[in-house]
Amino acid sequence: MVDGKKLILLVEDEPALAQTQALTLEAYGFAVLASTSGEEALETVRRRAEIDLVLMDINLGPGMDGTRAAERILAERELPLIFVSSHTAREIVAKTEGITSYGYIVKNSGETVFIASIKMAFRLHESRRKESESSARYRALVETLHDVVFSLDPAGKLTYLSPALSRIAGLRPEDHLGHDLAELLDPGCAAAWASQWARALEAGESAGEFFLTAADGTVKWLRIALQRVEEGRSLSGFRGVMSDITASRQIEHLLQVSHDLAVELNSCADLKLGLEAVLRAVVQLEAVDACGIYLADAESKSISMAVHRGLSPAFAARVSHFDAHAPTARLVLSGRPWYGNYGNLLTEDDEVRAREGLRALAVIPVMSQGKLIAALYLASRRFDAFPPGIRHAVETISFQVGGALLRLRTSDALRETEAIFSQFLEHSPIYVFFKDENARPIRLSRNYEGLLGRPLAEILGKSMEELFPGELSKSMVADDLRVIREGNLISVDEAFADRSYTTLKFPIDLPGKPRFLAGFTMDVTRSRRAEEALEAAVREKTLLLQEVHHRIKNNIASIESFLVLQARTSRNPEALSSLQDAIARVRSMRVLYESLLLSEGHSSVSSRAYFSGLLETVTSLFPNRDRVAVTGEIADFTIQSKNLVPAGIIVNELITNAMKYAFIGRDSGSLRLAVSLDGERVHLRVEDDGVGLPADDGGERRKGFGHRLVDMLVKQIGGTFEIHSGAGTRCELTFTL
Question: What's the pTM value of the predicted model, to 2 decimals?
Fold first, then answer.
């Protein structure tokens, strides 16, 4: 702030527009600093700590563009920053939204919109400042969300990836922009992704599950949902969300592995077969390349390897037995899991162990009833450390197999298994259920009492119709009977009491018994509501952009209408002349805006379409139009809006001057506009057969606003301008395309 005024940094490379905006801002009580390039703006922000807001043009000529300058500024300072640009294309606006949320003002959208947007940005910034302390926990929660928001162009190439990709997979979003999303996924997902992309193109939306390899080499599972985005009735691309479902997939996989292992162990009567079953389950876990099981001797406190997988015979022989005083035995006897790097344990003369090439190492005690039964020995040749998910899975398996191994070693295993299982049901944070062949619950976790509002004694043995509402109970029974009939694991989504749940159901097969049903129900209300909130926010932003675009078009027409009404009521010739000049300039901008809207890409238009419309629009304002023969010889080529704006204003001024002054005292005359292209040079000529210019007295004729504006715009586009007067007037403008 300077002298009690908020200080605004105006970054604009068009001098005329910068001057106009600065005057407007000062009229509303703001102090203004101006920069003409991104580099200059960045240095100004670094030097002037009192800057309160930045107005940033996107296209700043050679060097750093506005978006890059904005990113650099916002990386160093927390400032409200508003983009001011003539671009209205969705991808441009979307790009700026990823940089700042303080707004996007379309040039020439009107003083009211311009000032209101700035005031709104200040209010938003002040509101955020006041609420920052109270919203710290909320921000921390949001920053921990792992959902990746992304957008695709119609060809399926990534145009945006949110930073959550780094948190999920350790991958840099910017490395994948401009590439097919399929390239981000594992090659094994190519066919599935092609199918989902086809469904999205046909139906407008689709969802599926895929996986990729993270930077640390682990596998990440993603649920990818796509939704069509249209501009008008044309496809402009897709937006989507990648949800990290690795944990749920790991849970599903672990449940399946645990289920299969439990079935095999429960049906196994031989210790060696049971241990082999445990190893088969463990090697299914990601990152585990080698493993073994040590059995503990209760009397000697020593441990001996009973079975192993993935280890060479020489290495297995070296690590087959440890007495009670060996470091490995002490680790096992401590009863706590141990994770480390095998290379740190090697000695210089231990060639056998060095050749084995092991890296990550884990020793997981298998306990039951407080007794050490065995130890899982796990190793990886690919990773220096086991990921947390693998640790959890291994510890879960070790917890699971303890009772089974004890049962295989002692006759007391059944009571211990029942005690462990009862404790699990008593304290389980998720809902666990077991049902008989008629889909009636026979065992439930304790938390079902809170869910159904009844003690377990009143729940067990009841039918689903007696416990849940009609439609929900019917679908539950149908799913239960399908699992019992087919013997496969299924996952279903359910809703109950305004909460959302995901349930995994799988069969339990015991020799000589009917097939039972078991499963886990997890409350996923928070994640579902977060997804719904995100979708609602995206829809709201889309509607807001459509409304802003509509208002911009109406504002131009409104300004023109107000000026026309004022001109019709004006009795002052000088005021009327000024109003006609203003109307011509506004109409000139309207013609340009409409031409850009009709053009593909909104960045360049046909010279013939634009200048022909401009010639007709400007000359139609003057009462002597019927007495002046107006012709145009305009070559048709494409011209960029960057040069088209100043060239159009120059032509408007020249035509206006000719219609006002060239035919004074004449009954008729002719006016001609010629536009041609010679290589990369545009030649533009406005000539009339009027009275010509008066003798130039010291350059007085060059002091008017119109002439100063023309001179300034000619310099802006790096062109040349000449005026020839004799039998009429000829004005020639030349600039590079």
Answer: 0.35
